[in-house]
């Protein structure tokens, strides 16, 4: 009986090798397609985050450099809406990325919630208060750190 099994394997070696190669190729191709799609989604999210980080920096700068020195209430409302929307989007998209993305997104969001209202505060002499300077400095640094995190994630992709 062993001889007949060995003889059948010998007679059908080409077919067995072909099946093994086909199954291996199918498995590799499936894995590669899934990996490629995952990385494509991460890249798309990363580029969207970079755009939103630029917008957040514009909001920080506008509120710090212009709003404090007189503007309309509508401008403040628009800045609030743009800023909170962008920061929420950044946090959500970065939570889908590999490390260090999620931490940087959460950090920016927390700093935004804690410091946004301080950006346009003036002291009695009409200059930016220390709270406003600290808020601008910390938010700008958080935006930089988030950019670095996104770029690190992009570089880690195949």
Summarize the structure.
By secondary structure, this protein is mostly helical. It contains five helices and no strands. α2 runs antiparallel to α5 and α3 runs antiparallel to α4 (101-115).
Word description of this protein:
This protein has five helices and no strands. It is mainly α and 158 residues long. Helix 2 runs antiparallel to helix 3, helix 2 (13-65) runs antiparallel to helix 5 and helix 4 (101-115) packs antiparallel against helix 5 (130-156). The relative contact order is 0.12.
Let me know the number of strands: 0
Low-confidence stretches: none
Helix proportion range: over 70%
CATH topology: Four Helix Bundle (Hemerythrin (Met), subunit A)
Work out the strand percent. Answer: under 5%
| Biggest sheet record | none
Instruction: Give the overall shape, derived from the CA principal axes.
Output: rod-shaped
Task: Provide a count of the helices.
Answer: 5
Count of structural domains: 1
CATH class: Mainly Alpha
Succession of helices and strands: HHHHH
- The secondary-structure class comes to mainly alpha
């Amino acid at each position: 009986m062993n001889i007949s099994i060995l003889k059948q394997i010998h007679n059908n070696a080409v077919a067995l090798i072909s099946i093994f190669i086909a199954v291996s190729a199918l498995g590799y191709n499936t894995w590669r397609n899934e990996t490629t799609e995952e990385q494509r989604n991460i890249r798309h999210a990363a580029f969207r985050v970079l755009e939103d980080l630029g917008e957040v920096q514009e909001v920080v700068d506008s509120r710090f450099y212009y709003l404090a020195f007189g503007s309309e209430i509508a401008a403040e409302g628009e800045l609030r809406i743009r800023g909170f929307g962008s920061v929420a989007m950044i946090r959500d998209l970065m939570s889908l990325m590999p490390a260090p993305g999620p931490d940087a997104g959460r950090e920016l969001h927390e700093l935004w919630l804690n410091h946004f209202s301080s950006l346009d505060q003036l002291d009695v002499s009409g200059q930016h208060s220390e709270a406003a300077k600290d808020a601008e400095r910390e938010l700008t640094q958080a935006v930089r750190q988030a950019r670095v995190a996104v770029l690190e994630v992009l570089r880690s992709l195949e």
